[in-house]
Amino acid sequence: MSRDEQQDEPQSQRATAVDKYVGLRIRERRVAMGLSQQQLASVIGVTYQQQHKYEQGLNRISVGRLFTVAQALSIEPAWFFEGISEQDRPTEPAPRQRLHLELMRNFASIKDEKQQEAISNMARLLAGS
């Protein structure tokens, strides 16, 4: 779609910076829970491709679907909008956020609860709390 065509398209149909932010938050929570895009897509009743487009902020997500996603990810719908402001809308995770996501993904894939507890205790000691 050309830029002129996109400008003629109603604003309600175009993905915005808020859609991208919500998509990033969906991805963040999904990864933290150790779910694949396919798994989440199946739970919320969409295709993998549609789920991918939601996370990339390419497609707008309806309120009803966002509510379903929130239920699937065990959070309140408002969580997707936390930290957003008119002047400072992050569009991509910072390197440190990527590291956090990777750490959460790896931690979630550990099946042994004792090992998870040991890693949590080690992190707490390293953090000095």
From TrEMBL:
SMART domains: HTH_XRE (SM00530). Residues 26-80 form the HTH cro/C1-type domain. CDD domains: HTH_XRE. This is Helix-turn-helix domain-containing protein. The lineage of its organism: Bacteria, Pseudomonadati, Pseudomonadota, Alphaproteobacteria, Acetobacterales.
